[in-house]
Amino acid sequence: MVKICCIGAGYVGGPTMAVIALKCPSIEVAVVDISVSRITAWNSDQLPIYEPGLDEVVKQCRGKNLFFSTEVEKHVSEADIIFVSVNTPTKTRGLGAGKAADLTYWESAARMIADVSKSNKIVVEKSTVPVKTAEAIEKILTHNSKGIKYQILSNPEFLAEGTAIQDLFNPDRVLIGGRETPDGLKAIQALKDVYAQWVPEDRIITTNLWSAELSKLAANAFLAQRISSVNAMSALCEATGADVSQVSHAVGKDTRIGPKFLNASVGFGGSCFQKDILNLVYICECNGLTEVANYWRQVIKINDYQKSRFVNRVVSSMFNTVSGKKVAILGFAFKKDTGDTRETPAIDVCKGLLGDKACLSIYDPQVTEDQIQRDLSLNKFDWDHPVHLQPMSPSTVKQQVGVVWDAYEATKGAHGLCILTEWDEFKTLDYQKIFDNMQKPAFVFDGRNIVNAEKLREIGFIVYSIGKPLDPWLKDMPALA
Ligand code: NAI
Known about the structure:
alpha/beta, binds 1,4-dihydronicotinamide adenine dinucleotide, 6-stranded parallel β-sheet, Rossmann fold, 19 helices, 2 domains
């Protein structure tokens, strides 16, 4: 029986391994983590992450061929294939701070593998890492190898949070990079055999190591660039009377462009896009490619611009001040169907409004009060982009922020409401009831373009939708962006 061990039981390690276990009953899969609370949660009825369909997959395999454990060394030493799916955040201090990937967790995982291994291993990079990381990992492993042979593969994960299970069941492609030596090719084949149990062979792409590593950074950069492109257009639409949805539809009909990922919004978030682009920028700079670095940096600048443009629009519409006014925030997660708040645009928008002394009442169906308070109290690492954010002490945040468990409660007595996550339930709220219980004039700022603005205007709301022709009220109060 092939044994797989995955180091890191996070958003990627957990769902990916659960699906491998489900699709490959003859493989024993152990997911290990240094975080006791995470592993305890994986072994409970309340999984540590929310993903549609995940519960069912875990329930079917847990205890049979899927195990979650904190016995990291034991499972690593027993495994034939070791996936490393630890976090690779942006470095916050030292060389490359604010851009380079922090590989501390990766390096410590690699050293531990070298320490405890007693048989040959295939080590798979699942985390998103800078191109050429495999070379560094190879050095750590071979310099400490005690005669054991390691093959390093790059197998970046392309799942999207919120649709992780669907993406894993039916991936657009699986990418495996490895050394082009006989042992390297054998290792590639071994991993290919795992995926081939449910993924059609023509969707399993094999490349050299560096192409696989770089493809993941490139894919995220392209995706984020599409969002920044449409968001840049949304600003121009507001200035000219064009409608960004109509423009996106017309543009997306071109088969060379395609219709997906062209929704204007308050900005992209999530743990990956910004960090991976910063990482790409850093790699370009290290290779003397300043122009290329600047090109990609602009994708993040537009994202920041979109968030501050939204805040400015809220404040300027409400008579240029939100001081002491209750503003409801509907949605805090970075996208629907996840509870993940890493780099969510809601953090910057809320901080911008708090900086103008608004009183926020926040509701998200999947994010806890603790998480929201923590996110808003944390000082964001300021790389080199200007976001007008005030550092907030936890006590100020507590005073100005309330977290409630119902959209009606959040909006009661509010002057305005901001939709920051596209949760389906926000589309079908009783907006008449919400209007009746709000201060007048009552404002809706739709950061995801999910409500029917015309219907809301009929009720009496003043509505701002990103990239859409402006409400007459808003035209008279131009944003100060
Ligand atoms: P995460 O933060 O949810 O999980 C990482 C886990 O690794 C944590 O539970 C942590 O305790 C554990 N860990 C760290 N060092 C360890 C060690 N030495 N031994 C054992 N466990 C250790 O991170 P997430 O979101 O799962 O991301 C992992 C990697 O996958 C990152 O490189 C990310 O860029 C990449 N990725 C993430 C995607 C996402 O949607 N979240 C999608 C595709 C790739």
